Amino acid sequence: MCAALLWLIGAGVLVGIEILTLDLTFAILAGAALGAAGTAALGGPFWLQGLVGVGIAGLGIAFVRPFALRHLRSSTPEMRSGVDALPGQRGKALTEITPDSGRMNLRGEVWSARLDPDVTSVPVPEGTPLTVTRIDGATALVHPID
User: Is the pTM of this model over 0.85?
Assistant: First the structure.
């Protein structure tokens, strides 16, 4: 029974690593360790425990992991972060915004801003609500909200 306990501890460690990596490899290896633990609990010799573990790991990595990753990636929307998440966000003009310069409050931060020339070139006064159309370097290109 001692071997089964060691396999279970190994499976727990692998699950912990999987939580950090989110790659499904360590989850499959944890499943293989659980299979080996089951073999040990049923009294199988060490070579059989290893064979069961390697077999489960090989089959899982070869067949289950690609299918599971493809499913996860197709059902999970792309997450935007950093400056990629800013287009579409709303803010407020802190100064007059012109095609050349201005300052705005965007998500609690002060950003350099200028009007997006593809939308408008008419300056907007301080306090006007704005929408970010894109980011150019450290400057938000914006247009007023109608």
Answer: no
